[in-house]
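Priority: medium. Attachment 1 of 2:
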């Protein structure tokens, strides 16, 4: 079976990825499951640049192992853009206030920074760039987004990261209050992965 290695060790993210890419007919491994412990420095200036840096960096390591010489390596860079805060935390979302700081603290800090800000100025979006490095040396990158707003309190336990403060007016709840299936249907990562899935399908079709 052909393999996909996804450059993350985040099990919550891997659960979403496997659900969205289910049916591709490929074994989907995290980089940890593939035995790759490298920590790639993401020093790009956009989500797309960082995703490509990570995908290519992990691919370079993976292709040194005969077991993974034909694998597709995927990586993502995602984050939250809050318009009122000049699109902060943006590409620094995971590192905002320190990588080891809990998201309960990060989320409350963002709510505090928006204290007193009216509804129409609380617009925000999740962004996810998905990059692929292919065994033939080519690469692709796509972007998915989910538009919403910053709520007024932390709510919901189904998501992770900034999900509990990301309010979806059309749903009347935060993304952490959505079912996993509904979240994957609407989310930035879901949109990005579906676009990348089409690219992978086309690549496979060309090889047949």
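Attachment 2 of 2:
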């Amino acid at each position: 079976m052909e393999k996909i290695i996804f450059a993350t060790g985040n099990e919550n993210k891997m659960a979403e990825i496997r659900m969205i890419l289910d049916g591709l007919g490929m074994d989907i491994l995290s980089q940890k499951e593939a035995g790759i412990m490298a920590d790639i420095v993401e020093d790009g200036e956009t989500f797309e640049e960082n995703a490509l840096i990570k995908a290519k960096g992990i691919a370079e390591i993976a292709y040194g192992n005969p077991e993974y010489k034909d694998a597709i390596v995927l990586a993502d860079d995602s984050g939250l853009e809050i318009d009122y805060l000049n699109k902060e935390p943006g590409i620094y979302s995971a590192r905002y206030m320190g990588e080891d700081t809990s998201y309960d603290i990060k989320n409350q800090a963002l709510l505090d920074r928006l204290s007193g800000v009216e509804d129409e100025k609380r617009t925000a979006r999740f962004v996810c760039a998905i990059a692929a490095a292919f065994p033939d040396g080519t690469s692709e990158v796509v972007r998915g987004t989910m538009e919403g707003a910053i709520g007024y309190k932390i709510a919901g336990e189904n998501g992770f990261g900034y999900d509990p403060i990301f309010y979806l007016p059309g749903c009347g709840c935060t993304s952490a209050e959505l079912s996993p299936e509904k979240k994957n249907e609407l989310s930035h990562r879901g949109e990005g992965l579906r676009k990348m899935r089409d690219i992978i399908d086309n690549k496979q079709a060309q090889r047949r």
